[in-house]
């Protein structure tokens, strides 16, 4: 089982990034997918979730209206489009797959928002 995130980097406030999480080793289309983030010295926090079919999305209040989660089950990939980025969005972003009692995590990708 692998979840590999990519797309992180350094961006100025107000900018955009698109994160990707490529999955392998399990039946991706069965799993709900989530993005979490963890800033230095802080607890890991939920960012966004998408159901297995890609029709229902949920967001943390802090990112609602700025971030969009999506998935492509044909490519076994989940995305996080991040717009209007703020310095407080700086964190390591990880994707998570869960289904029944199974729960998988990626290693994460660093997002830094700074001028």
Question: What topology emerges from the helices and strands here?
Answer:
Blueprint: E1 2-6, E2 9-11, E3 17-24, E4 32-38, E5 45-50, E6 57-59, E7 67-72, E8 77-82, E9 91-99, E10 102-105, E11 109-113
Parallel strand pairs: 2-11
Antiparallel strand pairs: 1-3, 3-8, 4-5, 4-9, 5-6, 7-8, 9-10, 9-11
Task: Write up this protein.
This protein has no helices and 11 strands. The protein is mostly beta strands and 115 residues long. Strands 2, 4, 5, 6, 9, 10 and 11 form a 7-stranded mixed β-sheet that branches. Strands 1-3-8-7 form a 4-stranded antiparallel β-sheet, with no helix packed on it. A hairpin with a 6-residue loop joins strand 4 and strand 5. The protein is globular, with a radius of gyration of 13 Å. The protein starts with a strand and ends with a strand. The model has no long low-confidence stretch (mean pLDDT 97).
List keywords for this structure.
single chain, 115 residues, mainly beta, 7-stranded mixed sheet, 4-stranded antiparallel sheet, 0% helix
